[in-house]
Amino acid sequence: MNIVSKIIAVICLLLANDAFSQKKWTLEECVAYAIDNNVSIGQTELDNKLAEIDKKDAFGSFLPNVNANASHSWNRGLNTNITTGILENQTTQFTSMGASLGVDIFKGMQNQNRFRKAKLALISSQYQHLKMEEDVALNVVNAYLQVLFNKEAVKVQKQQFETDSLQLVRSEVLVDAGMIPRGDLFDIKATIATDKQRIIEAQYALIISKMSLAQLLQMKEFKDFDIADVAYEFQVNSILLEGPESIFGKAKNERTELKIAENNVRIAEKEIEIAKGAYLPTLSGFYGFSSRVSYAKIPDGQGGLKNPPPFFEQFNLYKGHNFGFQLSVPIFNGFSTRNNVSRSKVNLDKSKLTLEQTELDLERNIYTAYSDAKGALETYMATKEMLKAREEAFRYTKERYENGMATGFDYNQSQTLLVNIQSDLLRTKYDYLFRTKILEFYFGIPIIKREVLDGQGTD
Q: Which of 62, 265, 364, 383 could pair covalently with 351 via S-S, beta carbons 3.0-4.6 A apart?
């Protein structure tokens, strides 16, 4: 079996499987599914959860630290009786318990600034999640349009095959009538064979593009995957009337990557304030409670021993409290605080440069995207005019061929040029659709209006 036969067999098998496929996925469903199942988006969701935990940690620094302790021990041999203070050779039991509380009263505003930084970090994490969703959606749109293009390309090739098959029948009639030489039939048959090859290539490209889209959606079962046959009619998008300056002005307030960079500058500013807080004194308060219970017998005052007081009586008798304040004034710490402040300032400068570069990149990308979209429009319009001229040229060559005034070679060459222009028109059409989607994306128009879906596909 040669390679062409193998390709045909594979395509027939996949197309046979396709026949059992009932779901026809829309663009909105593809984007929604990708957002719900993409691994990278799932990782950013976990990052959001970690940022939430960090925020709770920062809030916890405002709360007091409360600890409790308890112990029970056995003392055997010569040891001090904790009740009488006398060394005795005996076995005793001893229970102690206590609790302590500490709270920061002033810590150079570090706790407050850490909490503010944690809130900003959570916002940045949410922006990162949104940015990942936008990137995935844009990739899905591109892959989806590629599938639509390949579907239409298959239709064009099949239509051309049908036209050539009819032309073969007419040519046989013209040969029998002596209007064209019999050798021209071989040219027509060669053209039909070429049409079959192009259909195979177009179907193979369609299968590959559908597999690529399904894998982008991270589907485990994608053999039966197919999309809805949506006809996107060409129309001039009003986004081109805005101009790159207007789009950039809107994007500065809308684009997620810019918001991330701006928020990172604010985080760096908080880091400086946290580092500077180490220059200031810290004041904390503390409170402690403790008590003990001994199970050793105690002197009765008459030279003998008696049992110790009851548990709770001892607990109340031996209880104690300690409380107060602790002030710590930093004097010298090996330049650690100063270096931390300097390091934070450097990070702030880096964040500002990143913000500046992000804005420059955004401006350049928008101007490039606008030029690409406008160029795609002009290319489409020019290709459309070329198609009209090529259709007239083919019609004229066809008439001449049927009247015996043109050869089969002339007919085939004119037809090949026509098919190429038809394919170019499809390509420029979907290229224009994607370019304008990118411009709308920068302008703040969502790629799709995501709604709650009842299922993963439509029948």
A: 265
